[in-house]
DNA sequence: CTGTAATCGAGACGGTACGTCGGGTCTTCAA
DNA sequence: TTGAAGACCCGACGTACCGTCTCGATTACAG
């Protein structure tokens, strides 16, 4: 296969290996048009009814141009949706609970967008039988969100709301595990409520959840050094 | 339309509307064979490559027979997978934390099965553009799991690990919200770790997660009566 | 391959082997609609621009229905055009030369029809690399025309314009060779003038050609018994 | 358009309109390589499966280079095949019948070559819907062969086997018609036997055909002055 | 010896058709 | 009425060629 894995930042037009020195170069504008068209098609049609031919037509591009860049619908849609996760930020709201509430609501509003909600689950579903896609998801989605957790934790430690990371190699590993745990709890709870339970993630829920998590974190911090 | 919505317990062969009194009765064996074939196909092919024709061939049945019982692929797969959730139980392990750990590991091992993991996410993805399917999912999956949370909570209250539900209509509502929250946190975290982060849900993770949740619940119980 | 060779008379719907006793039978109307549509498309578009999709659309039929009956464009077009050769007849014009002129003009007017002219050469061209097609052409076109030559010869013999076939096995072989030769001369000359030289096959040409052939036949008949 | 019609003798590299005095000149070697590659591809693949890209690759040349010289597949293939007709000659075998037999066998052996047989019919088929191609075929194939007929006739007249052309304008016209007729009969019969009837053009057939034609010509010569 | 102008290989591009596959329906015959 | 078989319509798939285009790099001739 001549396509190489997405690093999470490179544009697809770059991904033709070592950039062949000869021949007509790939059109960067086509890249942009295709991704825009993909998002538009997701909004209108949803994952299930989105077709490669339709995306090509919307982008004013030949189908071959799509397939030259992406091996299949999964990878195209993932790339199209991944950039939306760049919008997530962690504004400083003064205290940890407010920060958590903020990120929960922000994430929830991202999931409320039709292109995100329909695409994300579908791509995860496909990734259960497609190792390459699983790797791409980690790079394009998981890592992009995890850094928010890392940042929030550091900020809370700076404020004294959480104890500093334990020293040593083992301490770093424990901190890493904590970040992973927290990330799965936050993202998992929000996604599950929004898409599986199919109930609204509103202010009240965000507040209750944040309270639960905050207390839990405090307990974890106490027990952590000894327990883990 | 001659098909009626799945209640979550009835067998598909029962669902032929007013049950015609004449003609050849539907084969119950066909039902079983179809659902078995569906699960087998999910394991081998995953959701994306599973086809109705293939399921019919595996089951030794005509496609007509499938469509007489299920309106489409989504509903068939959902029914085929839903019964797996009946395996989930809540054995009494003596204390709340152990109970939580138990249910987490049990759910994780269910999600580790290829037919569950690929089908669940796919069906949820489809449900974002299919209201009927969303309803079916609630009945077949969400409610089936939620009762475990309810049961666990009652058991913990009986043991005195959690305060009893507040009285009154408003108290019942608050209790309901708490169940929903806890359910989304547990199921969401496990699903997210298993499928999105794609990392193992092992004893250590289950223990850490349970500790986090337990502390959180205690805090919630204290603040709950006043705060919510 | 599940398709069997054309016998020249059977309808394509019959050609599904031993006629499976089960399942929905093939639509005879679809057969007719497809062949009609093929001829119409040939007239409008010519061989080169005729597409399977377009034929299907004209016939109000799915592409799969075409492919279920014919393996490719060549075979479809051949079948569609072959029936036109049934129109050729040999009216008794009283003497051999007049009969020859008649058949020449008749064949020329058949070749003047756009569907015939574009299709015939194309199919012959393809047959140079497709043995199965070559067989089909013999059955559907060559044999259909050759019988006219046989008939004309018999009639001329009855009139005493040509000597009777020599007796014996060898005589029959010689007669067969003569028929083949005459056929290739007539059909070849007309096709070549019409399509390669691209000049009109009019009364004058037909008369000249018939005179040439008639004299040649007389000479052949004289020399034949001894020379061949 | 910068391409001019083929005269039948010019090399494609000459045909760049007013021949710009500046810039890099076209590679004559490329011309040769392309035509060779085209013939090779015809042999291996036949007309139907021959592709421009494949020819370019075989010739070690870019597709651009092909299209700079030939407008399309038809014209390229025609040019590639046309030169083969230059091989046809008319060796003096002493008498008219022998000359006819010679030319028939020679033409038959040319048609037996796979590149000729597949290309000739295909190009003729295309020419039924392409006027420009028809003109090209006349120049590249028809005229090239017709001169053999003219030559053979003159030789036979010199030998006294055929009467001399009648004098006057009308006589010249009649002679022209006779050449055309003879040409279509010879070429048509051979092509038809070889490609449509798909039977061998061997010595015996050639001899029988020549006898037929010779007698016919004699009769035509007698009747001609009066009848035409 | 420097510019101008055409060529060359390479390969991306917009199109059109291909032949196949899957979804879901319909038709026939047998049970 | 159900069930197996299989034809049907529809629409998308991913591929293959077409003929065009844009690159960077050559290669001639003109000044």
Q: What is the makeup of the main sheet of chain A?
A: none
In helices, the fraction of residues of chain A equals over 70%
Oligomer: homotetramer
How confident is the prediction overall: mean pLDDT of chain A? 89
- Which chain pair has the greatest contact? A-B, 55 and 56 residues
First and last CA, distance of chain A:
43 Å
Organism (chains A, B, C, D): Streptomyces chrestomyceticus
Region (Disordered) (chains A, B, C, D): 1-29
Keywords (chains A, B, C, D): DNA-binding, Transcription, Transcription regulation
DNA-binding region (chains A, B, C, D): 51-70
Question: How does this model look, in words?
Answer:
- 4 copies of one chain form a homotetramer.
- By secondary structure, chain A is mostly helical.
- Chain A has 2 domains: 12-81, Homeodomain-like (Arc Repressor Mutant, subunit A, Orthogonal Bundle); 82-227, Tetracycline Repressor, domain 2 (Orthogonal Bundle).
- Helices cover 71% and strands 0% of the residues of chain A.
- Chain A has 9 helices and no strands.
- Chain A has helices at residues 28-49, 52-59, 63-69, 73-82, 96-112, 114-127, 131-159, 168-196, 203-227.
- In chain A, α1 runs antiparallel to α2 (52-59), α1 crosses α4 and α5 runs antiparallel to α7.
- The longest helix of chain A has 29 residues, at 131-159.
- The relative contact order of chain A is 0.11.
- Mean pLDDT of chain A is 89; it is low at 1-10.
- At the A-B interface, α1, α6, α7, α8 and α9 of A face α1, α6, α7, α8 and α9 of B.
- Chain D binds a DNA duplex (31 and 31 nucleotides) through α2 and α3.
């Amino acid at each position: 296969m001549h396509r190489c894995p997405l690093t999470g930042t490179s544009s697809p037009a770059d991904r033709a290996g070592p950039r062949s020195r000869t021949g007509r170069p790939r059109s960067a504008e086509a890249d942009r048009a295709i991704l825009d068209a993909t998002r538009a098609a997701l909004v209108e049609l949803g994952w299930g009814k989105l077709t490669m031919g339709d995306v090509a037509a919307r982008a004013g591009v030949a189908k071959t141009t799509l397939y030259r860049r992406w091996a299949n619908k999964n990878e195209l849609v993932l790339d199209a949706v991944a950039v939306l996760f760049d919008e997530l930020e962690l504004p400083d709201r003064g205290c940890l609970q407010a920060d958590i509430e903020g990120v929960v609501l922000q994430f929830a509003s991202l999931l409320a967008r039709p292109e995100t909600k329909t695409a994300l689950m579908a791509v995860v579903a496909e990734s259960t039988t497609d190792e390459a896609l699983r790797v791409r998801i980690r790079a394009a989605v998981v890592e992009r969100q995890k850094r928010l957790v890392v940042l929030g934790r550091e900020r809370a430690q700076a404020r004294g709301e959480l104890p500093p990371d334990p020293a040593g190699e083992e301490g770093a590993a424990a901190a890493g595990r904590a970040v992973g745990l927290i990330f799965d709890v936050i993202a998992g709870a929000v996604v599950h409520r929004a898409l599986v339970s199919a109930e609204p993630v509103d202010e009240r829920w965000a507040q209750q959840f944040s309270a639960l998590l905050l207390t839990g974190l405090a307990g974890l911090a106490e027990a952590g050094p000894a327990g883990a």
